[in-house]
Amino acid sequence: MNLERVQNWVAAQAALPDDRWLLRTLAYGGALIAMLATEHGAGSASVVVVFLIGGLALLATFGPDSHVSSLVVLAVGWRWLASVADPLAWPVVAVAIGLFLHHAACALLAAAPDHVELPGSVYRRWVVRSLVVVAVTVASWLLVVVLDGRSLGGSVVLTAAALVAVVGGAVVVVLGSLERASGDAAGP
């Protein structure tokens, strides 16, 4: 009975559309990037943590509508906080982007049943919005590193102005993509 279940599950996975496999690969890859960057930032790798997070990430890609993806984010965040001494080190950007990629890909996987192939417009909007998030993440990190290096010591006004500029730029890009998307939906 169990062997038949496994065979049916494997057959169902083999019949999935290619876009689903790509999203699963992105979700797993994002978690691996975050985990490996955390281990690099820690200066040493814990085999137990690597296998735990890797296994959770694999489970999350096959059950994206469960809470396992949240456990992946929590485990990587816990490992980062417990083991990385320099919160401004470059691996924090890789961790943030990896966790975002994992979370966003799992969310898109959970948006529709596995057998449904999403239209290309959904993927185009997803990619544009994801690139905006990545750009804002990198810009914010660079802003923090530059301000920390200048030892401006609590310049709240400068920090707020810079963050408003970064977020404003992101809003302009997203609004532009929404206008183009609504123009596409209206038809010729």
SSE topology:
Elements: H1 2-14, H2 18-42, H3 47-62, H4 68-83, H5 91-110, H6 120-149, H7 156-186
Helix pairs in contact: 2-3, 2-4, 2-5, 3-4, 4-5, 5-6, 6-7
Number of helices: 7
The beta-strand count equals: 0
Tell me, what's the shape? flat
- The proportion of strand residues reads under 5%
**Ends: how far apart?**
54 Å
Order of helices and strands: HHHHHHH
Largest sheet: none
Helix proportion:
over 70%
Indicate the mean pLDDT: 83
Radius of gyration: 20 Å
Unreliable parts: none
What attributes characterize this protein structure?
188 residues, mainly alpha, 2 domains
Question: How do you describe this structure in short?
Answer:
By secondary structure, this protein is mainly alpha-helical. The protein has helices at residues 2-14, 18-42, 47-62, 68-83, 91-110, 120-149, 156-186. The chain contains seven helices and no strands.
Molecular structure report:
The chain has seven helices and no strands. By secondary structure, it is mainly alpha-helical. It folds into two domains: 13-117, no CATH class; 119-188. Helix 2 (18-42) runs antiparallel to helix 3 (47-62). The chain is flat, with a radius of gyration of 20 Å.
